[in-house]
Design goal:
Mean pLDDT: 95
Low-confidence stretches: none
Distance between the termini: 34 Å
Number of strands: 9
CATH class: Alpha Beta
Structural class: alpha/beta
Radius of gyration: 18 Å
Helix content: 25-40%
Shape: globular
Strand order of the largest sheet: 1-2-3-5-4-6-7-8-9
Length: 281
């Protein structure tokens, strides 16, 4: 596959991204994919871990962000690298969502269970169809990742491949790790939108996530806006993490941010924490 990127300067002067418009797929609709290379990427033949992030339009440029505030991913990685809080920079792949964001990001298999029929029916009524996240993950793992590993100086093994997102992007990040534990070594799930499926999701992930030993998983939530609904579900998921053998502060972290709302400004303010947790070892 021969694809050509357009170099797009970042408005904050933090380098540029390479943008692939209408990245093709046999599984989902074409979409924009942004690739940001860390400052140390030009230093010799060094290869780098890769972080795949959902809602890619919100990551680098406030002019494109839904709320007018981007995550500042480029700034966060550069800052952690400069402060020696991570050993090397990370290639960040920002995947823009398609027209059916909810259907792409809602974990499909939990809603296919017999006990989830009411949740599935409600989801279909509200969003015009069943979840298509299995197709989205096929795009990510069988089309996008092989291209990134062939075109950039990456470390392609699972120990150096991560996935992250917020809200529904947090759900699909966790789903990616559950479905493809041999591909992803860690997931960061910020403000995970548990109410989309409630305990159906929590119970599914407690059974489906890989047992502790080879992966790192980060959760967080605020207390304002949509985040105010999350704590009971997250506490239930934390119980599931302990049952799976994960150890808080070692290979799993859950953080509560009092006063934090459900928006890009809040996620930007704490992004250093999950990045350091995933990349700092």
């Amino acid at each position: 596959m021969i694809l050509r990127a357009v170099d797009v300067p970042l408005s904050d002067g933090g380098g540029w991204i390479q943008r692939y418009q209408r990245f093709p797929s046999a599984h989902v609709e074409p979409r924009t994919v942004d690739v940001w290379l860390p400052p140390d990427c030009a230093n010799g033949d060094q290869r780098h871990p890769v972080l795949y992030m959902h809602d890619g339009h919100n990551l680098f440029d406030p002019a494109l962000s839904t709320t007018g505030q981007d995550w500042g991913v480029d700034e966060a990685v550069s800052r952690l690298l400069q402060n020696r809080q991570i050993p090397k920079g990370v290639v960040v792949v920002g995947i823009w969502h398609g027209a059916n964001r909810w259907r792409e990001y809602m974990p499909a298999k939990p809603l296919a269970q017999p006990n989830a029929q009411a949740v599935r029916d409600g989801f279909i009524r509200e969003h015009g169809g069943a979840p298509i996240s299995d197709d989205y993950l096929l795009f990510l793992t069988t089309e996008l990742k092989p291209f990134i590993d062939s075109a950039y100086p990456t470390l392609p093994d699972s120990r150096h491949t991560f996935v992250a997102g917020s809200s529904m992007g947090g759900l699909v990040s966790l789903y990616a790790l559950a479905e493809y534990p041999e591909v992803f070594g860690g997931a960061a799930c910020l403000s995970t939108h548990w109410p989309a499926g409630g305990m159906v999701l929590v119970d599914y992930f407690t059974a489906a996530l890989p047992r502790a030993g080879l992966h790192r998983i980060y959760f967080d939530y605020g207390t304002e806006g949509l985040d105010a609904e999350y704590e009971p579900y997250q506490k239930a998921m934390d119980k599931g993490m302990r049952a799976l053998g994960y150890t808080g502060g070692v290979d799993w972290v859950t953080r509560k941010f009092v006063g934090a709302d459900h928006n890009e400004a809040a996620w930007r303010a704490r992004l250093d924490i999950p990045l350091q947790f995933l990349l700092g070892r």
